[in-house]
Amino acid sequence: xxxxxxxxxxASGKSTVGEQIRLLGALVVDSDQLARDVVVAGxxxxxxVVDHFGSEVLQADGSLDRARLGSIVFGDEQALAVLxxxxxxxxxxxxxxxxxxxxxxxxxxxHMVPLLVETGQAxxxxxxxxxxxxxxxxxxxxxxxxxxxxxxxxxxxxxxxxRVERLRVADFVIRNDAGLExxxxxxxxxxxxxxxxxxxxxxxxGC
Length: 207
Ligand code: ATP
Hints:
207 residues; alpha/beta; Rossmann fold; 10 helices; 52% helix; binds adenosine-5'-triphosphate
């Protein structure tokens, strides 16, 4: 199995690229989605969150109030570490279980991980694809998508790794400064290169 990491800054276009790659036939694993899945209503993960943070993080229907929890852990390193200690092992387990079901030894599994660089996972993959966008475009898309003002959007971008840090560890870069059609073409071209990794798998065996 070839494990590919897909990352990029906030609102850079990871999900859009991830969906395009999925349409090209790849198995795309969305870390954000898994992080939500492990704390769905009634889950053991959510019970643990409530044990630590209290039932005030629950909404009336028993689901997690993400905004409330976010405001509790924001700027509180200890609380964030507790939360990560609940979520991260479960996400890792979910990913391992997904990979364990892949039978094809030449399958390419793409892991979409927003904070891949920030969490030091750059070396955990056979190849890293970075969706890169210049800051002005990123700012505009983020403000439009999340309804943020410029200051709020800049703060979110500033809290992440820089473009340079991401590009430094990238094996493949998909620029997302044009339209969706161009993005699809660029994604296709990069995917074509990623597929070549299959041919390299097993190189150096000496046989
Ligand atoms: P996050 O990690 O913050 O959730 P993301 O990196 O997954 O974001 P997307 O949600 O894919 O980013 O894209 C951010 C926004 O920009 C979305 O509203 C998306 O529709 C839009 N967008 C992405 N690429 C393009 C493009 N090439 N042209 C126009 N809009 C785009």
